[in-house]
Structure formats: C-alpha cells, structure tokens
Dihydrolipoyl dehydrogenase (Pichia sorbitophila), 472 residues
Amino acid sequence: FASTQEFDVVVIGGGPGGYVSAIKNAQLNMKTACIEKRGALGGTCLNVGCIPSKSLLNNSHLYHQVKHEASTRGIDITGDIKVNVDNLQDAKQKSVKALTGGVEMLLKKNGVTYFKGEGSFVDEHNLNVKPIDGSEEFQVKGKNIIVATGSEPTPFPGIEIDEERIVSSTGVLDLKEVPKRLSIIGGGIIGLEMASVWSRLGSEVTVIEFQNAIGAGMDGEVAKQTQKLLAKQGLKFKLGTKVTKGVREGDVVKIEVEDVKSGKKEDLESDILLVAIGRRPYTKGLNLEKAGLEVDNKGRLVIDDQFRTKHSHIRVIGDVTFGPMLAHKAEEEGIAAAEYIKNGHGHVNYGNIPSVMYTHPEVAWVGSNEEQLKEQGIKYKVGKFPFIANSRAKTNLDTDGFVKFLADAETQRVLGVHIIGPNAGEMIAEAGLALEYGASTEDIARTCHAHPTLSEAFKEAALSTFDKPINF
Ligand code: FAD
C-alpha cells in the first residue's frame, strides 16, 4: 500500500465554496487538497447553475431585442430571425467549459492537489477517495477538513423528475427545443430566470406559486412591480396556488392545481414542467456518521460562528450549511474558513450579502427590506428614483424600474437598497460598499457620479431620502 497522503487542509467539494477555500488555504501556505466527484470544478454554480443560466439569459435577451426592438432602434433586418437552440446550447457549454477549465488551472497554479473522486469520512481525520475513473480507492488524512458539498434541487413530493418532460433546474438548462408550453412550480429566482429565458424564445410560460407574491425575499413593493413587468412581457402567474399533481402522459404533463384560499381546482397541461421549489443541502455518500457529524431537520450540517462542527478541525461552508444558498456567500465563507484555520480569525458580514435576479430588467437588493424594518420597529425613510427620469436609461430605451433606498430616519444611515432596472446586479455593489462602510444617504448623494450613467439614479434615490431629487 502507498502510505496515506497527509494535508494541512482537505476540502470536500470543488464548487464556489470549496475551490475558493482550497486556493485561499494554499495561498496561506497550507498543504491543501480538494476532492471533487463531478469530473469538473466549479460545482453547481459553474456547471448547472449561475453560469449556464446567465448564458441563456444573456443570449435569449439579445434574441428578443433583435426580434422585437431592432426596428425601433434603427436597425432594419430583412429575412427571418430564428432561434437555433443547438447553437444557443453550444455557446452556453463553451462558457461553462472555459470557466471550469480555468478553475482547474487556478488550483494547479496555487499548488492545490486535485483529486477527481468521491470523498467520504473514514473517521474524524481520514477520508476515503473513490476515483471517478474507477481506479483503486485510497485514503487521505487532513489535519483540517472543510466540507463544501453544496446542495441539490428539492424534490416535489409525488412528482417524479425524468429530466425530459418533468425537469429540475438542471434539465431546464438543457432543453433541446423551445417548448410550446412551459409550466413552472415556484416563483423564486431560479423559476423566474428560466421563465424569462424560454418565454423570450417563444414558450407560453405559466408560473405557479403557493405564496401570494413572487421572488421570495424581495421587498414587497419590488416584488409587486417585478411581477407587473414580467406579466407585461407575457408570463402568466398563478399565485396563491397549490400544485396537487403532476404526471407525464406521453409527451405532455398533466398538472392539477388548487387555489389555496377557495380550494377551487383546475387542470392544466404543459409540454414541460419545471420543478423549482428550492434547494436542499447535499451530504449523500459522505458517511457523516463515521465522523460523528449530524445534520439538522433541514439536512444542514450544524456549525458554530467559526464554521466548526463539534470537531473543531472539521468546518462546513456554502449551501450545505446555514444561510442563503448563493455562490458569493459560499466564497466568502471559504475565504473566512481558511483564515480561521491559519490565523484564528475570519469574517463574513451576513447583513451585507446581495441578491440578484438576472431577468430583464434585473432585480437586485442588499440589506433590509421594508417588511423587515417594520417588524423590527426601526424608523426609516424611503428614497426612490425611477429610471424613466434617468438620462442613460432613456437614451437606451430601457426605462423600466427604480432605485429604492431605505435609510435610518434619524441618522440617514443606509439600511437597505432595492433596485429593479437595467444593470441592477452591477449597481448593487455600490450599495454593498455603502452598507459595509456605514455610509449615510447624504454621503452617496454628495459623491460625484459620472454622467450619463444609470448610477445617477442611485445617487438621486439616495438624495430623495432627505431632500428633493434634481431630475424628477
Ligand atoms: P456547490 O456549488 O453545489 O458545489 C458542491 C460540489 O461538491 C459539487 O460539485 C459536488 O459534485 C461536490 N460533492 C458533493 N459531495 C461530494 C463528495 N462526497 N465528494 C466529492 N465531491 C462532492 N448563485 C448565485 O450566487 N448567483 C446566481 O446567479 C445563481 N444562479 C443559480 C442558478 C441555478 C439554476 C442554480 C441551480 C443555482 C444558482 N445559484 C446562484 C446558486 C449557486 O449555484 C450555489 O449557491 C453555489 O453553487 C453553492 O456553492 P457550494 O460550493 O456551496 O456548492
């Protein structure tokens, strides 16, 4: 037998949490290994999440613009404008491949040992690696172990996913043709992004949501406005509606729904049904019991505020533990976990983690929303500025949405920012900086913003919390 290799840190999972942490650990001069069983690095995010979805969103938006807006923008196109789903999928795959390959190079460059296989606990310090190429299993030992095994789509009880007609987020990213009818269970971010993609390409899309509002976690006013804008684009919404059945019958899916309030039933039919009701932590195959580790009632590995399990050398980050299931949250934790191991201190500000929905317009927010502030009894002021009054948005013929600031009523300290609008996802970074530095809305209103840019709407919304805006 070859002797067991020993590392300062072994990371299980090569997603945004795991690979970022592996790099950071190596940069802090710790001998580091990363075990990933997918055959490609980057996790859910790069392979079947953030990146492929954004490729489809970007290119379907371009198609929609060319098809429906070109002439108003002074571009005459003769002949048919058609979607080529094969090429659309190729473009997606190309970006995924380039990025996952790039991560592999980064691990190499930083001296991280990459094991392509499934990792499982043998005991608290030793892990078994089962290589995906079928070669002999072996063990590695970690002085420290970081679990970053991520999440998987939550199944809908009674509805069987075949990834052909009844699909999860993974299957809906891989459709080979534009479905005539697409029904979606769940009006959260993933559901609405996929609704946008396929609706732009020609599908009739129906979003079925149990709650009375879309976009779980959005500020109430923003959620309402977003729904209006998406409905204008052709999406149909069935809110306050419960799905009671979804079965494939040949090439169609039969769906039964029920109005939550009245109990009224309705039968629907669709070519594709997407189940997008959320994600759950993934710990299958880890053999947690061998290390004496436990999960809570939601399947999350339980940790303290330094990411430690009951064994202080085993830490957990990303989707497989508490907090929002977002790539950038997993990355921040990956860095902080490495710093805790090396220096004994690290930091993630959970009050300042942005959320972005990459529809068009985009929706982005960070900090508290109105409902949360009311619940906490915090007195606040609202400042709002619409993109219809912003010169760049007007020039770009892209004026839907607004910037909304929530600021402390007394001190004007920024408490939350909520944006619907073009490039909201980029603009929210400025709000994050403001929150991190404890800025007041006056600080922002007195900061010179370039003209003509969308970010002038950001500045004027900040100004509107304590004074009159100039351009509205
Ligand atoms: P993961 O990315 O899930 O990575 C975990 C990895 O561990 C996987 O590759 C898995 O193969 C591996 N693994 C598991 N068990 C083992 C084992 N025993 N041995 C070896 N390897 C193992 N987030 C955003 O921030 N922005 C977005 O725009 C966004 N869009 C999304 C769109 C979709 C369609 C989906 C599904 C998700 C999206 N997310 C987005 C969420 C984001 O993908 C996750 O929050 C993020 O990937 C979590 O990172 P992670 O490292 O914790 O886990």
